[in-house]
Amino acid sequence: MVTASSTALPAAAVSRLHRTVIDWYRANARDLPWRTADASPWAVMVSEFMLQQTPVKRVLPAYAAWLERWPTPAALAADAPGEAVRMWGRLGYPRRALRLHAAAAAITEEHGGEVPTDHAQLLALPGVGEYTAAAVASFAFRQRHAVLDTNVRRVFARAVTGVEYPAQATTAAERRTAVELLPAREETAATWAVAVMELGALVCTARGPECGACPLRAECAWQRAGCPPYEGPARRGQTYEGTDRQVRGKLLAVLRDAHGEVEQARLDEVWHEPVQRARALDGLVADGLVEPVGPGVYRLPV
Q1: pLDDT digit string, tens, across residues 219-234
Q2: 174 annotated active-site
Q3: Active-site residue among 48, 83, 164, 198?
């Protein structure tokens, strides 16, 4: 549990910040299935794994299909990890599927099939890092934790720090700011966490922020400073075409669709450059996403 801390902002300003963002959220929040009152802690955990680096509109159908097949951690744990990779489909970064399967197995074996409520126990699950543990504890169990994703970090960078973008890696100063801005009451803190995240996703976006529609415009340090442009290290855009990521995705798509063993010749058809193709396949094997079952024969993990 995060403890209270002093903040550079006056208490009245912090209180006003809380009211403004939470009121905006209550009027503008998207209707998402993992936010409903009947969403289980497992459903919240699944959503958090899927939403890492993947837009909501791509997650929604995969989330629904996943929970229909595996409505509990035990249901997923009873299936092969390769089936998790298959169901992950084209969400990207498929190692998340293996990590979610490993977390489900640990929940089943160590916690009686129930997602643990304790933050430290969540953090101890395989594949669960600091952000996911805080998010599940906050959104599923309404606890008081600093939940720092890319959207939240961007809102705090602009509204509180006065810079256009946060550092590329989360800093200790950002963590202090997040802790200092947490409302004291657990229920309010949990709503605040998701409200700031939603503000970053819908209004205070990375490109083309809708400052005119932002409830924090009058309070925003970046606005008051005249919206100075970002002066940090060059922000790297994500590329995909022609990368090993693209080749890995093509190879994995063949294995997902095969529902069995696949010979090397079929994999060779999906990418013309043999050195890059071999490197991508070796990477899939090293990550546990693909298993060699004989010379030139592969399958999803069982």
Answers
A1: 999 999 999 998 877 7
A2: no
A3: 48
